[in-house]
Amino acid sequence: QVQLVESGGGLVQPGESLRLSCAASRNMFGIRAMGWYRQAPGKERELVASITSAGTTDYADSVQGRFTISSDNTKNTVYLQMNSLNPDDTAVYYCNAEYYINIMRTRLDRSWGLGTQVTVSS
Question: Could you tell me how far CA 86 lies from the centroid of its own chain?
Fold first, then answer.
């Protein structure tokens, strides 16, 4: 199973920026995509942004234009640059990886990180 280690959360004021990082352990058959989800108190976990191994990205409407996801495939690491943060961005942010579990790349599994807290407050 792919192990994920997140870093970069913290407390910031509205309008400030944070950068989250997530490093994935090596997987024999490769990783298809990685992404960031978040869960605020009393709310369901939601997709924030994702990126495939080919570089295709997807963003939630609420973060489009403010957040940027990127990856370094040589390091199996994904980053989330978060700008213009506001209190609605306060949540636990979870890294996610979707990876292949067979040589033909027809089967996938999924791993989650433990989460990192992001708090936006004045």
Answer: 18
Tell which residue, 59, 86, 76, 102, has the closest CA to residue 5: 76
95 contacts 51 by C-beta, under 8 angstroms: no
The pLDDT value recorded for residue 107 is 94
- How far apart CA 85 and CA 79 sit, in angstroms, is 16
Q: Coil, strand, or helix at residue 93?
A: strand
User: What tens digit of pLDDT does each residue of 13-47 get?
Assistant: 999 999 999 999 988 899 999 999 999 999 999 99
77-82 and 18-24 strand pairing: antiparallel
- As a dihedral over the C-alpha atoms of residue 76, residue 53, residue 32, residue 3, rounded to 10 degrees, the angle is 10
